């Protein structure tokens, strides 16, 4: 079955389920609201605060790595110049050059590990910031649910069709801005691993 047919089949099944559920929901007087989580994260003061702090942490990480990267680049160019026109045998016979190449390889490997560690720290920091954001969002969302007397909250991205009347995103953003305009974002650190022998 082609990908397009699978999508249409999935949409048809979802639509059939909505049609089947809609009469039961309206008969019971169920109130449904939708929220756009991406918009809340992007447009709220807390979400913008997280974005700014994460950008600052990313810049800090890059600034920490840059001197070593630049030094390795310069050293690599110098070694390439020294290797120019030499055969493998000539390089192998030059003990000083072999020592420089081995030291450079070690520094390059160490830098690769440092970059990987920094990337992992950034990912952990980003995840923790989102956990903190969701903790701040939860009570605000529950307040909106109570105000709207809603029994169901759906992600706008998971809904095939809805009217703007049931979208509570703006209300959630307004309340979140008032309750929590900033989120604590702290760079997560990974302890150094002992060097493998």
From TrEMBL:
It comes from the Bacteria. One of its GO terms (molecular function) is unfolded protein binding. Keywords: Signal. GO terms for biological process: protein stabilization. Coiled coil: none annotated. SMART domains: OmpH (SM00935). The keyword Signal applies. Belongs to the Skp family. This is Outer membrane chaperone Skp.
